[in-house]
Amino acid sequence: MILVAGGTGRLGSSVANRLSRRGLQVRALGRGTVTPDALDPDVEVVVGDVRDPSSLRDAVSGAATVVSAVQGFVGRGGVTPENVDRDGNVHLVDAAEREGCDVVLVSVLRAGPDGPMELTRMKYAAEQRLRASTCPWTVVRPEAFAQTWIEILRQTAGRSRRPLVFGAGANPIAWVDVEDVAALVERTVLDAALRGRVLEIAGPERLSLDALARAVMAHEHWSGSPRHVPRSALQLAAWSLGLARPGFGRRVRTALAMDTMAPVDVTTTRAAFPDLPCTAVSTVVGRTARVARG
């Protein structure tokens, strides 16, 4: 049996469905705050929270492999990179280690002790706990999810229909399609030869945040141009409004980091898996625009 933690989320549900359609027994762990409409009927759904170690015992029981697709970057209920991406993953690895499971951890590109944002540092701490465990492991490090940032841009557009771009938004980023990441995670679950490896994945098309916002506007037939908040105002907001609204502050600090972070060479993973989907972010924009309109 395969447990997918975060299995009712965007990435986790795709991974769970892919594995279930192969005839495998799959259990999706979610916090119960989202109706798992996207899950196939054969996927077992259990309620639990990686922030609460006691809720993981039954969820992990009987599993051969645990996939961590949890994230605390966005979401309700007080989730943060610290309590989900670091501490929650530590709890999950502890439970998997007791059960003797393999673990596939979805981390993030640029994870490191001095990473450019809180998420990269918290994911790195989780990676280190996993490496120190007795679990056979694989780490998947994706670039920023195209769907997440397209959604943020749509939300900030509001009635003005002009998305808000934090900072210059001029730094090209290889946004990755969640479905491409799910395909790679599926591969790592099925292939035990991939244990002990770190696999990095990004999309084939590099667009700045400003260009991504303009692409969203074009597909939605919104006129004008994106609104921009200068870096100086962002830096002030991150430590003022960000204190009262942590989620907002996190997005602001992330956008500031994205304004300057360098690209990462992920050609090794693509070369190793030439049949892996390689979806351009412009394709994702068009696909999600059609879904949004129904």
Main features:
294 residues, 7-stranded parallel sheet, two-stranded parallel ribbon, 12 helices, 9 strands
CATH class of the domain at 2-141 and 178-201 and 264-273: Alpha Beta
CATH topology of the domain at 2-141 and 178-201 and 264-273: Rossmann fold
Task: Report the structural category.
Answer: alpha/beta
Number of helices: 12
Order of helices and strands: EHEEHEHEHEHEHEHEHHHHH
Q: Report how far the terminal alpha carbons are from each other.
A: 35 Å
The CATH architecture term of the domain at 2-141 and 178-201 and 264-273 is 3-Layer(aba) Sandwich
The main sheet orders its strands as 3-2-1-4-5-6-8
What percent of residues adopt helix (DSSP H or I)?
40-55%
Kindly state the mean pLDDT as a whole number?
Answer: 91
Work out the oligomeric state of the chains in this entry.
single chain
Quantity of strands, as a count: 9
Q: How would you sum up the global shape?
A: globular
Q: Nearest-angstrom radius of gyration?
A: 19 Å
Biggest sheet record: 7 strands, parallel
CATH superfamily of the domain at 2-141 and 178-201 and 264-273: NAD(P)-binding Rossmann-like Domain
What proportion strand?
A: 5-15%
Low-confidence spans: none
